[in-house]
Design brief:
With 362 residues, the chain is α/β, with parallel strands linked by helices. 30% of the residues lie in helices and 23% in strands.
């Protein structure tokens, strides 16, 4: 369908516990929600449940196994995500500059974190920027902050082959200086962390979000909750931990550690939810996880104690507010799903949406 004026009528479910269901009519012109009525607008749906486009808060459309992703291949990944309902993507690290996709009206909206920042042989080769001198971390953070859309991604821990296990990449002082540099640039910092040892330094430095977070302890969870630090647990990626361990026979300590993190992950994430940590849905698509799986991640949130309404909120209203993105107000980008059934009763209805992306029905 072309990008002419669109009209939908339906009901928006209250998902945050503070709002009731509401009946709405929406009009979209030029990719934005506008005041209506609009003459000659084509009605996409006259009934159904309307929810903001899903948010994938941890995604890499510029990454695939083997690297070498072209912008056209990234466009295909973005299309798969959009068709699955993920209409806002927080791209937390990519070796490919995906900004050209912003001009594609059928692509999701992007909020980027530049490239991963790591050290030589301490992350996946070719994915990020490797700093020979870790004291240069604040300078690199400033560069990535200026290349991104308000976020910077630091690799907090990874296997140290000399140690044979997960280990932090940075000193506490380096992290504190780096986070201060990001905040000075008006950017927030998120960190990849699997284990426990890197987390105290990252949280003390003032990072704004933790990716994965399988090594969180009760004390660290309490700090995150008190400071409003976000958590993107990437549940369907954590499901790959046993396979990662199976391929690490040269490092038995790391192998056992990854298996233990997997075994404890659901309890860790459940404790974080119960403590009030802000948890957001994110697939980690682009490596071991295929694109277009956002609904799998939303459904998986029920496995850590969310009810259907809470899981839906963790992929819609809450991350949109956290990221400063619109939802369904006049002036917002026209990104929404129309569903046949109430998703708070059965999240599986998210698998068969009418997807409106930037005012275009996909």
């Amino acid at each position: 369908m072309t990008s002419g004026a669109l009209h939908v009528r339906g009901r928006v479910p209250g998902v945050d516990g503070a709002s009731d269901d509401r009946d709405v009519e929406l009009w979209a012109v030029g990719g934005r929600i506008v005041d209506g009525p609009v003459a000659d607008a084509q009605t996409v749906a006259d009934t159904g449940w309307i929810v903001p486009g899903l948010v994938d808060a941890h995604n890499h459309v510029g990454i695939a196994p083997g690297l070498g992703v072209t912008i056209e291949r990234a466009r295909g990944f973005a299309s798969a995500d959009a068709k699955a309902g993920a209409l806002l993507i927080r791209e937390v690290g990519s070796p490919l500059d995906t900004h050209p996709l912003d001009a594609d009206p059928r692509s999701p909206q992007f909020i980027r974190a530049g490239r991963h920042i790591a050290r030589p042989k301490r992350y996946l080769r070719g994915y990020g920027v490797d700093l020979d001198d870790p004291d240069h971390l604040p300078d690199e953070v400033r560069r990535q902050a200026r290349d991104g859309d308000g976020w910077v991604k630091i690799v907090g821990d990874w296997i140290d082959r000399e140690v044979g296990d997960l280990a932090p990449l940075w000193t506490d002082r380096q992290l504190a200086d780096a986070v201060a540099a990001a905040h000075d640039e008006g950017a927030r910092v998120t960190a990849h962390v699997f284990g426990t040892d890197a987390l105290p330094g990252l949280l003390d430095a003032g990072v704004d979000c933790i990716e994965h977070g399988t090594g969180l302890t009760d004390d660290l969870i309490a700090i995150m909750a008190a400071r409003g630090v976000g958590l993107v647990p990437t549940l369907i990626q954590v499901d790959n931990f046993p396979g990662i361990a199976d391929g690490a026979d040269r490092f038995p300590t790391y192998q056992a550690h990854m298996r233990a993190l997997y075994d404890g992950a659901r309890d860790v994430f459940s404790a974080a939810r119960e403590a009030g940590v802000a948890i957001f849905a994110g697939t980690d698509a682009g490596g071991f996880v295929e694109h277009g799986r956002i609904v799998d991640e939303v459904v998986a949130l029920q496995g850590i104690g969310f009810d259907a309404a809470g899981a839906l909120a963790a992929a819609t209203d809450r991350p949109r507010a956290w990221l400063g993105a619109g939802a369904l107000a006049v002036g917002d980008r026209a990104d929404f799903l129309v569903l046949r059934e109430d998703p708070r009763i059965d999240l599986e209805t998210l698998r068969d949406p009418v997807v409106v992306c930037g005012g275009i029905v996909l």
